[in-house]
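Review box. Two proteins, two foldings.
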Amino acid sequence: MQWSDKRVVVTGGAGFLGTFLVEKLLARGCNEVFVPRSTEFDLRERDQIIRLYEQVKPHIVIHLAAVVGGIGANQANPGRFFYDNAIMGIQLMEYARLAGVEKFVATGTICAYPKFCPVPFREDDLWNGYPEETNAPYGLAKKMMLVQAQSYREQYGFNAIYLLPVNLYGPRDNFDLQTSHVIPALIRKFAEANESGSEEVVLWGDGSPTREFLFVEDAAEGVLLATERYDGPLPVNLGTGEETTIKNLAEMIAREVKFSGRFVWDTSKPNGQPRRCLDVSRAKDLFGFDAVHRLRDGIPKTVAWFMANRDSLRQVVYS
C-alpha cells in the first residue's frame, strides 16, 4: 500500500489510540489524514456521516471511535453504550460502501467474547456463548460490525476487516476514575495515596481475575499492519498473549509508583470476566504483527508519562 496516494479518515483519531495511529500514518508518508471531531461530525447521525464522506472522499476508513469505559461506566450506561456504538458502526460502514470507500477497518473489543470462553481466546470461539454481563451491551454492539463486514463482503464485495484489540494502556490514557480502565485507575489511585499519606488503597473485586493488556503504540502498529496487508473476512485478535491477575498487576504498578501501603479488596464490586487472554497467532500469521512491549516494559513508560503530565491532567480529569 502506498500511503502517499491515500486519503484516510480515522474516527477517534483525536483519542488515545487514534493519536498514535495518526502519528504513524504521517510517518508512513500519508499526507491526507482526516480526523472528524464530534463538534463538527456527530457519527451517530446519518446525515453527518454522509456529509463527512462527501467532503473528504476517503479511500480508507479506520474506525476507532467508541463510547467506552471501565466496569462502573458499563454498568451505569448499558443502553447508551449499546446504541451509540452500534449506530456508529452500522452507519459508518453502510455509507462507506455507498461512497465507494476502498477499505473499512473496524476495531471491535474483546468484551465481545463469551464470559466463560476457553483461554486463550481464539477468534473461532467468538459465538460460543454470551459475553460477561457488565460489558455485554458494549461488546455486542461492537460485534455487530463483524457480522456487517462479513455480510457486506459476501454480498457487495466490500473490503471490510475486523480487529479485536485487547485492553490498551500507555501514555495519553484516560485517567478519570469514573471512566478509566484498570491500569490508569491504579496508577492514579496509588499516586494520590502517596500524596495524601494514605496507607491503604481500595480496589474493586478480589484481585483474582486475569487480564491481558496491549501497549498503545503496539496497537497502533497492529492496526496499520492489518490495513496494509490483510484483506480477509476472519476476525483477528491484537494482543500480546501475556496473562496476569489483577492482584499481580496492582503489585507491579504499586512498585513502579512507589506505593508501599496495603490493598483493600472491595468484594462488593464486580470482578468482571474471570479470565482474559488472547491467542495472537492469527495476527502474526496473516499480517506479521508481534507486540514489542510486555507489561514490564510498558508500565514504567505509562507511569513516567502520568507523573510528567499530572499538572495538565488535573485541569481535565481531576475536577
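Next protein.
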Amino acid sequence: MTAIDDPAAPVARHPRREAQEVVGDAFDARVLEPSPPAVVDGDLFADDPVARDGSAGRPLVAPVSSADLTWDRWLGERPEWASWAAARWLGAWRRLPSLPPTYAETRLALHRLVVYVASPARQRVNGKMALRWTFGGLGTPFFGDDEQVRVAGARLVRQRGSEVQAAPITTLNGAAELVLDGPPDVAWAGRFDVPVAGDLDERLAVDPEAAVFLGDWFGFAWSVLEELRAEPASTEPSRTQLWPEHFDAAFDCLPEDRRCTFGVSPGDAAVPEPYLYVLPWRFEEAPPSEFWNSISFRGAILPFGRLVDADDQRTAALTFLRRGRALLEP
C-alpha cells in the first residue's frame, strides 16, 4: 500500500486531482470527497463533489448516473483500478460487513470527537458546522488556508496546505491540541441534543475495526445519497452534508409542500444500529402507506439488519429511498 492509498497516512491529499491523474487528460473526473482549494463564498463554503460545471468539454467521469460516464463504466475497460475506486466508493462497489461488536462504543466516541473538536475547527474560521465523508472516515471540507481536519479510522489528521500532522485518537484534549491548538469547544453545541463531553482526559473508546466500519458506512451513504440527489426526480435538491449534532448525512429535495429529507444515520439512542431514513417535512400531508414505519419520528427507516443481507446492498438502499420519494412526488 502506498501512502496515498492509506487514509491515515500523514500526506497532503487532493482527491479530485488524484482522480484526474488516474483518468488522464481525455476525461474530467469527479469524486465524493471534498478537495482543495477552500471555497470562500456562497452559503455552504464547500465544493460540490458531483457538479458538472468546469468540465472543459471533456467527458465527465463521476460516481453518479447523470455523468457522461460512471466510474463503473470507466472501470469496465480498466479493471486494474477497481480496488482503488472501491476504496473511495466511486464504483466496483464493496459489500458492508456485519456490525463489529465494539461498534456502539466507537460510534459514541467519534460522535463526541466531531462535536467538540472536528466541527469547531471549521466553525472558528467560517462559522459552518457541517462535515463530509472523507477517505477512510469523515472530516471537514477545506476551509481557511486550505485546511482540513479528518478522522481516518482510529487516527486524526490535520492538513494545512502541504503540511500534514496525524496522530492516534486518544482523548478530547489530545485531539483538540492537534487540530484546535487549544481546548475542545464544549459550549457551541449546548442547544443541541448531543453526547455530553464528559471527562476531556478520558480515553475515547475508538476500536480500529469499528472505526473503519463507520467510515465505510458514511462512504456507502455518500455514494447512495449523491446518486439519489443527482436524479431528475430529486427536484430542488440541497447539498449532502454530515451534520455533527445528529451525526447523520442527509439532503433535502422536492417542492416546499412535499419537501423531504433523505438521510443515513450511523444509529442513535432510539435506533442503535445504522439505518437509512425518509423524513417528510409535512408528514400530515404525506400519502398514507405502510412504508412509514418509524416509531421514533414520523417517517420511514431501513435498518441495517435488513440491508446487510441484501443481494445488492446499494440497490436495496436506493430502492428504499426512491420509494419514499415516489410517494411524495407531486
